[in-house]
Please model this.
Amino acid sequence: MGFVDLLVVAVIPVIQLLLATAVGLFMAVDSVNLLGPVARHSLNNLVYFVFCPALVISSLAETITFESLVSLWFMPVNILLTFIIGSALAWFLIQITTTPPHLHGLVIGCCSAGNLGNLLLIVVPAVCQEANSPFGDSSVCSTSGEAYASLSMAVGAIYIWSYVYIIMRVCANKSIAPIGDDSTANIDILKESSKTCLESCKENLLPSSMHGAEMPGSGSVKRMQVPVIKKMVHFINMIAEKIEFKMIFAPSTVAAILGFMIGSISPIRKALIGDSAPLRALNCSASLLGEPATPCMTLIIGANLLNGLKRSGVGLPVIVGVILVRYLFMPLLGIGVVKAACSFGMVGSDPLYQFVLMIQYAVPPGMSVGIIAELLEVGESECSVIMLWSYLLGAFSLTIWSTFYMWILA
Model:
């Protein structure tokens, strides 16, 4: 199959995505106002809490079995590598462009977290359905492609709401820390508060016979021993306070865990999946609720891009740097990673599987980064600008890299 034929196969899904995104952008225009801020917020909640989890659990339950999960073990590793490589490149970008501190987390998020969900669910099945597709029979290709895309979306959701969210939260906390004289004043206040607290604890906790005695460690009183178990409990509590388990176990993450369980545990799978399954109505309902997820997420992408047209709160070097990381360095490194994995026998010979692994390095930044920025209230306008240019140029980049990947795999 020639390069031009592969280009046609790759461009059709991207055109579909662009058209749906343009509809979302049009619906968000002030004169139309069908997807204004309030409507967009409500639709986003529906996607986050209902549509996307239903799509994840139904897709994984139907397409992932224990055998396929074992054979696809490299995909979670590959996705983790995309996050690690993207974070490393983002760190170099921050150093080169002297990015403002409050944008460090946003740059790392945009460079490390790709759109591993709805984009692959659109692009991969559409490529399979093309007459000139290099991946064989369309029905077999579509089934396998949906399984790969569903697993990618599930694993990507877990990494985004754990790895990326924690990084952006830490960077946000650092960027809003007080500086200058206010910081010195706050430190003095904290010292006084700590001194008062220690004196109060001494009065309340030490026996009356020890009041006025020297504190432990001074030589007159032996050092009080704290049990190891209490130290461990205290340490775990400190870690739990730093980590937002509510965000790590997002609805899509919980749905992915349930989908893995249903698909991999044979008795549960037989009860829920299949035309003769006694509880097949539950899976059918989840599948029905999951169908609007992809079009709704695409409309939200288009509507959110409108903010990027209205604002310009980020420097040009940062925008160019993010685009180069996501559309040049990441795809090139992705080829090397996948080819190395194939040479070491970590990846099978299925060209569609290798195509999905490679394209995970070439997708635009994940829209969940924008949701995290809104939740943390840091870099919201800058995120809109970065997303606008990333998705405008991503249409061309995704077409070119998809064509190139199919050409080297065909």
